[in-house]
């Protein structure tokens, strides 16, 4: 269905169904029983928090209400809502002012599918002048506000001029405790403002975890394992947490400009928490540890520079010292120590290390740990059942159904369903976004995927939705090809739709609730909700000046500030340029918050990476340039060869075996025209949005 078709379908629902049932949304709501009447929104609407519960917990009901207020203004384009009120009086249907009332009821009980209690459920009651959201804890009320915002957004996206909600009663709660996404930040640098925006976006679809894989290295076997080869010393490896100045760990961070300070990380973590998303940090050891061994080569396993030698006396104390430094940064009750793809011949050493780190971290911080599922062929030792296993593949004996039956708690990250790779994958193994066909009907029997499904072909490897030790699922986006393979926004493009469908499948499941979404319903409502998701602007949407024109400057300029930071694709940026004859390669043509376009070789820069078009602008005349961008590519049409597009590419090293060419998508550098010492002339600048 096209976007226009989707909006038309939604408009039909708004005109013909509204007032009787809730609109389809992502994720679907468990139950709603309508009654007579509607609750109509207006700019006079007030948000009231029950006074005695306002500051309970952290984030508190009042803090969630403050974020909700801002999101409501964003969704409805209201200039400014009234300040939040505190009251112990529950509004009734005769209230003169439409009121949204947020409250707690500790007697309310909500259950996950496995029967465990959850504090993420909520009830809502709607009458003509009051919309009441209650939960057993503030987090449940927060998810109730997401439902409210989505119902409003669907109506507005369907063409409604005003927003109203059907009167009635509803209840909702998640099927699984863990509903997360993992981002490989060890091989690709991301700043904390982007990570915070990802949390805000994910929260809209009731995803509650961001797993940050914060240390790793590129994998090139020739560099890592070649005889007499010391290429591993210079192979890209990163550790993203920046120790304070003078710390004994200072040498652990080779790239200070690609690391998070404590304040940056904690601010981002707070942003995520204030949107219901816990940040699960991962420091991957004893495999994937090249960055540690580049710092302290004596810790290295002989012949395996990316493995730690666990029998070396200083190895485990060093790893403990790393956790000592950074554990106080982390607010979530769990952390991941990675612990995947280690030498199976050293199974006993591996198991002892994992168990020792579990006990140590628990003693130091009260936190529990997670590890990636790994085959441990030991007949004498076993991983502690206090540790959660994050299943990702079926090597050897790592069978999740068996693990759960043996008493292990399991998170489903099975790669057959839940793995993505930045820009491309080796041999097309992983899709660019979660495979919609697979998730909606790729499970055995033609049913859709849900966290209880681990295999698309073998039902014996799957379990029931109420399996007691099944905690939920996390899908993963790896960045195996490093920083230059993708921009941060390209990573968002891979995650955006994936997060939405994953939100439905991990909150409601597949074929579990009668109210669950169909694929057609999802396809219809997703574009509207993606465009409406509040609190961030990862789509880099701007309001055109007129028609599809963002701006146009028909004059001649050396430098000009436009006031528009960045514009997301699809767009066309056209201009004429004559470089300075004294230094034709000097300076920057356009600057934005996400990218720059330099004069030299018409080079785009994004997140510190450079991508040259390889075209040299002549210095003695004007050249006409049109830049066209979509989410898949960016190309230029230049007057000397119009009709023959020139694409910006990146070159990716695939496992050290071959080089792959990939198209690049850039946001328009729209903030400034002419910068960084540009002394030429730019004229007839025009930036338009494409359909």
From TrEMBL:
<feature type="active site" description="Proton donor">
    <location>
        <position position="341"/>
    </location>
</feature>
<feature type="domain" description="Glycoside hydrolase family 20 catalytic">
    <location>
        <begin position="178"/>
        <end position="508"/>
    </location>
</feature>
<dbReference type="Pfam" id="PF02838">
    <property type="entry name" value="Glyco_hydro_20b"/>
</dbReference>
<feature type="domain" description="Beta-hexosaminidase bacterial type N-terminal">
    <location>
        <begin position="26"/>
        <end position="155"/>
    </location>
</feature>
<comment type="similarity">
    <text>Belongs to the glycosyl hydrolase 20 family.</text>
</comment>
<dbReference type="InterPro" id="IPR025705">
    <property type="entry name" value="Beta_hexosaminidase_sua/sub"/>
</dbReference>
<dbReference type="InterPro" id="IPR029018">
    <property type="entry name" value="Hex-like_dom2"/>
</dbReference>
<dbReference type="InterPro" id="IPR017853">
    <property type="entry name" value="GH"/>
</dbReference>
<dbReference type="Pfam" id="PF00728">
    <property type="entry name" value="Glyco_hydro_20"/>
</dbReference>
<feature type="signal peptide">
    <location>
        <begin position="1"/>
        <end position="19"/>
    </location>
</feature>
<dbReference type="InterPro" id="IPR015883">
    <property type="entry name" value="Glyco_hydro_20_cat"/>
</dbReference>
<dbReference type="GO" id="GO:0004563">
    <property type="term" value="F:beta-N-acetylhexosaminidase activity"/>
</dbReference>
<protein>
    <recommendedName>
        <fullName>beta-N-acetylhexosaminidase</fullName>
        <ecNumber>3.2.1.52</ecNumber>
    </recommendedName>
</protein>
<keyword id="KW-0326">Glycosidase</keyword>
<dbReference type="InterPro" id="IPR052764">
    <property type="entry name" value="GH20_Enzymes"/>
</dbReference>
<keyword id="KW-0378">Hydrolase</keyword>
<keyword id="KW-0732">Signal</keyword>
<dbReference type="InterPro" id="IPR015882">
    <property type="entry name" value="HEX_bac_N"/>
</dbReference>
<dbReference type="GO" id="GO:0005975">
    <property type="term" value="P:carbohydrate metabolic process"/>
</dbReference>
């Amino acid at each position: 269905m096209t976007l226009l078709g989707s909006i038309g379908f939604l408009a039909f629902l708004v005109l013909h169904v509204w007032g009787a049932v809730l609109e389809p949304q992502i994720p679907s709501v468990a139950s709603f029983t309508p009654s007579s009447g509607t609750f109509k929104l207006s700019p006079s609407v007030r948000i009231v928090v029950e006074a005695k519960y306002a500051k309970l917990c952290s984030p508190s009901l009042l803090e969630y209400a403050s974020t909700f207020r801002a999101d409501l203004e964003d969704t409805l384009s209201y200039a400014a809502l009234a300040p939040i009120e505190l009251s112990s009086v529950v509004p009734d249907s005769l209230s003169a002012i439409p009121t949204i009332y947020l409250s707690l009821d500790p007697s309310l009980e909500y259950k996950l599918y496995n029967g465990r209690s959850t504090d993420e459920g909520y009830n809502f009651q709607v009458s003509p002048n009051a919309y009441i959201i209650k939960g057993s804890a503030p987090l449940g009320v927060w998810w109730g506000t997401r439902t409210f915002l989505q119902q409003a957004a669907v109506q507005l996206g369907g063409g409604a001029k005003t927003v109203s909600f059907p009167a009635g009663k509803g209840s909702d709660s998640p099927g699984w405790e863990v509903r997360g996404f993992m981002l490989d930040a060890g091989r690709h640098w991301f700043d904390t403002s982007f990570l915070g925006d990802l949390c805000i976006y994910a929260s809209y679809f009731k995803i509650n975890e961001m797993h940050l894989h914060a240390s790793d290295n590129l994998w090139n076997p020739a560099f890592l394992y070649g005889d007499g080869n010391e290429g591993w010393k210079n192979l890209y490896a990163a550790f993203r947490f920046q120790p304070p100045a003078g710390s004994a760990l200072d040498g652990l961070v080779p790239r200070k400009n690609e690391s998070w300070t404590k304040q940056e990380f904690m601010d981002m973590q707070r942003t995520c928490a204030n949107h219901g998303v816990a940040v699960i940090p991962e420091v991957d050891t004893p495999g994937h540890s090249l960055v540690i061994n580049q710092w302290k080569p004596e810790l290295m396993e002989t012949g395996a520079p990316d493995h730690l030698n666990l029998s070396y006396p200083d190895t485990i104390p060093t790893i403990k010292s790393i956790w000592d430094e950074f554990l106080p940064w982390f607010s979530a009750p769990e952390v991941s120590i990675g612990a995947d793809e280690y030498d199976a011949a050293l199974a006993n050493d591996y198991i002892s290390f994992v168990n020792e780190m579990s006990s140590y971290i628990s003693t130091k911080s009260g936190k529990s740990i997670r590890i990636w599922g790994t085959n441990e062929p030991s007949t004498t030792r076993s991983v502690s059942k206090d540790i959660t296993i994050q299943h990702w593949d079926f090597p050897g004996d790592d069978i999740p159904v068996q693990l759960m039956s043996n008493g292990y708690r399991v998170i489903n990250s099975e790669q057959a369903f839940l793995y993505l790779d930045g820009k491309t994958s080796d041999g097309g193994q992983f899709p660019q976004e979660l495979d919609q066909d697979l998730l909606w009907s790729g499970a055995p029997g033609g049913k859709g995927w849900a966290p209880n499904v681990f295999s698309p072909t073998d039902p014996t490897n799957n379990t029931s939705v109420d399996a007691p030790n099944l905690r939920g699922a996390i899908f993963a986006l790896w960045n195996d090809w490093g920083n230059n393979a993708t921009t941060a926004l390209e990573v968002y493009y891979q995650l955006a739709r994936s997060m939405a469908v994953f939100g439905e499948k991990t909150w409601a499941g597949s074929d579990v609730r009668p109210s669950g979404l169909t694929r057609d319903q999802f396809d219809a409502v997703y574009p509207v909700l993606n465009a409406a998701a509040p609190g961030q602007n990862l789509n880099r949407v701007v309001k055109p000046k007129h028609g599809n024109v963002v701006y146009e400057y028909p004059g001649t300029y050396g430098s000009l500030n436009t006031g528009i930071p960045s514009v997301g694709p699809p767009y066309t940026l056209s201009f004429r340029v004559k470089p300075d004859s004294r230094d034709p390669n000097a300076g920057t043509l356009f600057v934005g918050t996400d990218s720059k376009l330099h004069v030299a070789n018409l080079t785009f820069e994004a997140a510190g990476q450079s991508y040259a078009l390889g075209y040299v602008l002549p210095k003695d005349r004007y050249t006409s340039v049109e830049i066209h961008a979509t989410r898949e590519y960016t190309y230029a049409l230049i007057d000397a060869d119009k009709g023959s597009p020139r694409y910006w590419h990146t070159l990716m090293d695939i496992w050290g075996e071959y080089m792959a060419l990939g198209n690049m998508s850039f946001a328009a550098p729209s903030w400034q025209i002419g910068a960084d010492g540009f002394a030429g002339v730019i004229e007839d600048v025009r930036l338009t949005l494409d359909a």
